[in-house]
Amino acid sequence: MTRGLDTIQEEQISTMDVTPTNEEDSDLGTMYSSKWMRQLFNMAVGSGSFPKHHQDIFKLSKQEQNLWMIAMQEEIKSLSDRNVWTLVDLPKGHKPVKGRWVFAVKSDGRKKAQFIAKGFTQVFRIDYEETFSPVARFETFRLLIALAALHDWEIEALDVKTAFFFGELDEEIYLEQPEGFVVKGQENKVCRLRKAIYGLKQAALQWNKQLHKSLLEMGFLRCKSDPGTYFKIIGDELIVLLIYVDDALFMGSNKAQVLAHKSQFMKRWESRDLGQATEYLGMRITRDRKKQVITLDQTCYTEKVVKRFGQENCKPVTVPLPTGYNPRPNSNQDESNAALCSRY
């Protein structure tokens, strides 16, 4: 989901209007339009060692091309196996939603390709209406982690593979055929979506509806204060499920019950078993059961950001200020400059 959003942000930044509106803004406008600032923006949106567009693949070595082609073929196979769409002629009066490929390298080195919809080309009240989908609150996550440390709960993790493909669509939506995989002899046809795909504005909502129905059938109840948290009471045992889109944590004091419910969930939804939770939503989970301590940090994420900006070899400092910095009182000129900068 967020990968599609990153792509949209990248496109928005590349077309950003940085023309100064008046003489007062001219210096700042020049700064933002400079080459080094554009490079900084490109790094900020996550340009890594993977193709940005489908055409970029053919600029790589033959070995790299083959690996990315395999990733795309796996994505097409997932779409086909789940009957996400059927090829049809575009009805009169309808306009297909555009799509594009998004590429990423996972933390374990796997190459991942996703064909997503360009949700910004959807038309409100024609292609979608409601879009809001509840997710677990970070406050709830931290509270449950504290309880797990205090009561020695088991914490098991998983993520649902291609979760959005399980969402049933209520609207009639047509999508362009994937670039590089247009069916020969049917080039003029479009994909009639039966299920949601990543990038659609209502995709997360439709998946959440299917998930909620499934969890109720498994005997879970939704927490009223946090719709991303479910629980189930079995005698004196409590099983808690925390879910954020397609990332899930099962918690409870009874390991057998936790594993049994996790297994039951994975039979309903094709998932990747991550075992005991060591990471969740970019946060590393470190546990010391003897001391009843669970530590959360974002060291791995921070290291990725530092590497992305090429700052691995910089000298560490305790505060983001130069050594020997001597603060001075603000003058009127300083205040006017501060007011100008605050506008940007």
Describe what you observe in this structure.
The chain has 344 residues and is of the alpha+beta class. The chain has two domains: 1-47, no CATH class; 48-306, no CATH class. The chain has helices spanning 2-14, 26-33, 35-44, 62-81, 138-151, 203-217, 255-268, 299-308, 332-342; strands at 85-88, 99-105, 111-117, 154-160, 174-175, 190-193, 221-222, 229-234, 237-244, 247-252, 271-276, 279-280, 283-288, 293-297. The strands form four sheets. It has a six-stranded antiparallel beta sheet with strand order 7-8-9-10-4-11, sandwiched between helices. A three-stranded antiparallel beta sheet has the order 1-6-5, with no helix packed on it. It starts with a helix and ends with a helix. The model is unreliable at 1-33 (pLDDT under 50).
Task: Name the descriptors.
344 residues, 14 strands, 6-stranded antiparallel beta sheet, alpha+beta, single chain, globular
